[in-house]
Specification:
Blueprint: H1 2-23, H2 33-43, E1 48-51, E2 54-57, H3 61-70
Antiparallel strand pairs: 1-2
Length: 71
């Protein structure tokens, strides 16, 4: 029984970590270029870029993170 409890705790911890990493870019990854352009304008960026088939504001992730820190 302790092994099962350990496995459940490990699974819950891993799931919580995954949720945090998914939310990390919740303000930065969009399905459409138009959505990314709108967010880029809000952040003060002039362009957007693609990342794994999704759209992100700013010219690259480094610029995106700089602009997000300014908010």
């Amino acid at each position: 029984m302790p092994k099962l409890l350990f496995a459940l705790v490990l699974l819950a911890t891993a799931s919580a970590g995954l949720a945090v990493s998914v939310q990390a870019h919740s303000t930065g990854i969009y399905k459409s270029e138009a959505e990314a352009k709108q967010r880029a304008a809000e952040l003060g960026c002039d362009s957007v870029h693609q990342n794994n088939g999704r759209w992100m504001p700013c010219s690259d992730e480094a610029e995106l993170h700089r602009m997000l820190r300014k908010q």
